[in-house]
DNA sequence: CGACGCATTGATTGGATTCAACTAAGGTGG
DNA sequence: CCACCTTAGTTGAATCCAATCAATGCGTCG
């Protein structure tokens, strides 16, 4: 735990993600590692942060899956984002006081917690890093827009196919998808609350994708059998993920 | 056009908006006015920026309405944001190369265009202003999330009511809503492409809101007759707009 | 092993779409 | 200045995609 460990950098999902799109200095990498030191484990189905909280720390996903969600008066739930390793849960609490939604762990997860002051230091002293974090924020915005397009104008089949394509791309970006296979620890109910559908209909649509030989899903693992057809069915154009698309 | 004109500041929608949530120095205000000097008029139904563009300038809405939209292969359209005076159209082009969506003027509009370099200068030299702009970005993200919730889990009636509440709040924030009345220059087709519905169904739902005495809409002007009931029907909780909710 | 969460499948219902016709309003050119 | 044409709004009827209700299978965990 003393000398700078190159493995530590390779294992950090945020570093992995940012280095795909920009060059980080040794110092930047170390700053990220430093900041990822204080961690907290969260069990599945537990909130990482709840709506209304006014947290003093920003949380960075290191392991596991989480979801941003909002509850409606009638009891309905809408998931508005999936958080995977390398994603910040709540960068906005550095500026906005109150959480206007909750974040819950979908699997056992590990998060780093970073004080607001620490984040502020970072953004003031490391312009390259700040720029990279800003890139990540903007990509997130693009994902939100694409979800609106999906829920608003694609039917159930296209929606589901599109989401699977997106998650595959994102998992690849952090090195968590080998070939066409990756961990997908979501229940059909969670998928339903993401795509604005019922769990029953997710089931039927999933069955159809299987029947057509496009995917294989079981034991929380997804394998894409025919990516070309899947992307085509979804109308998936990965431009909005801006992989490697940063301006310097 | 020589001496610093206090009216110029009062008339700038971005200044009006930011001063609701934070204090700007005289210098900050002047910087915004400076930057709003080079303007361009855009006719209704014309693109301000198109998908795939790699613009060198960032655009700031000064007058009129615009919409962020995405087209689908089948010809369907989804609007992902409304831009009103004080909103930036494309802050992301400072970091991301390519526009992954288009922006079109819904009414005759005036936009200021600001070079990327200029924006970068601004963000490097004016921390308070940068913070305020960041606040605006984060609020936008909150709006996107709320739209996902609407389209995903609210029915047509709630959706429409919610959108009207939101637009009312936003118009109030820039001083463009007096009491319960404001300009709403949207066609029913545009509302449909926003809420993921058909124009016909928007019409029926609008009729119902009228019949129930909640709104009065005609001649591109909306008047909210019964805000309490409308908000209740929508499940509208304005927290996500973070009015005045900045941390210092 | 009983209980509970998750997945699967059938039957029925319903909110929203589509198609279609018609009206009202606005803009343009002869 | 009005005939014409286009765009936006309104309304009815038929249809459909997805929701709801309901029942069953299956695995796993306390």
What features would you highlight for this structure?
248 residues, alpha+beta, DNA-binding, homodimer, 20% strand, 3-stranded antiparallel sheet, globular
Question: If you had to describe this structure to a student in words, what would you say it looks like?
Answer:
The structure is a homodimer of 248-residue chains. Chain A is of the alpha+beta class and 248 residues long. Helices cover 43% and strands 20% of the residues of chain A. The first copy, chain A, has a four-stranded antiparallel sheet with strand order 2-6-4-5. In chain A, helix 7 packs across helix 8. Chain A is globular and about 50 Å long. At the A-B interface, strand 5, helix 5 and helix 7 of A face strand 5, helix 5 and helix 7 of B.
Largest sheet of chain A: 4 strands, antiparallel
Tell me the series of helices and strands of chain A, N- to C-terminal.
HHHEEEEEEEHHHEHHEEH
Give the helix/strand class of chain A. Answer: alpha+beta
Shape of chain A: globular
Mean pLDDT of chain A: 93
Biggest contact: A-B, 49 and 49 residues
Q: Numbering strands along the chain, what is their spatial order in the largest sheet of chain A?
A: 2-6-4-5
Distance between the termini of chain A: 35 Å
Please tally the β strands of chain A and state the result.
10
Rg estimate of chain A, integer Å: 18 Å
Instruction: Classify the beta-strand content of chain A into a percent band.
Output: 15-25%
| Helix content range of chain A | 40-55%
Q: Helix tally of chain A?
A: 9
* Low-pLDDT segments of chain A: none
| Oligomer classification | homodimer
């Amino acid at each position: 735990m003393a000398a700078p460990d190159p493995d530590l950098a390779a294992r950090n999902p945020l570093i992995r993600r940012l280095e795909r799109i920009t060059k980080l200095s040794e110092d930047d990498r170390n700053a990220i590692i430093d900041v990822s030191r204080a961690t907290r484990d969260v069990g599945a189905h537990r909130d990482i942060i709840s709506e209304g909280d006014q947290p003093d720390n920003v949380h960075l996903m290191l392991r596991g899956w989480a979801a941003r969600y909002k509850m409606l008066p009638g009891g309905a739930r809408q998931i508005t984002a999936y958080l995977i390793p390398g994603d910040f849960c709540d960068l906005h609490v550095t500026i906005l006081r109150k959480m206007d939604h909750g974040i819950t762990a979908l699997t056992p997860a590990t998060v780093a917690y970073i004080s607001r002051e620490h984040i502020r230091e970072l953004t003031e002293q490391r312009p390259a890093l700040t720029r990279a974090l800003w890139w990540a924020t903007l990509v997130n915005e693009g994902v939100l827009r694409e979800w609106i397009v999906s829920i608003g104008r694609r039917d159930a089949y296209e929606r589901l196919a599109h989401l699977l394509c997106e998650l595959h791309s994102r998992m690849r970006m952090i090195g968590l998808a080998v070939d066409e296979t990756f961990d997908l620890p979501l229940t059909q109910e969670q998928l339903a609350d993401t795509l604005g559908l019922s769990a029953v209909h997710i089931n039927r649509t999933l069955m159809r994708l299987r029947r057509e030989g496009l995917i294989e899903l079981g034991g929380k693992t997804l394998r894409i059998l025919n990516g070309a057809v899947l992307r085509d069915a979804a109308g998936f154009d990965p431009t909005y993920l801006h992989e490697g698309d940063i301006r310097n």
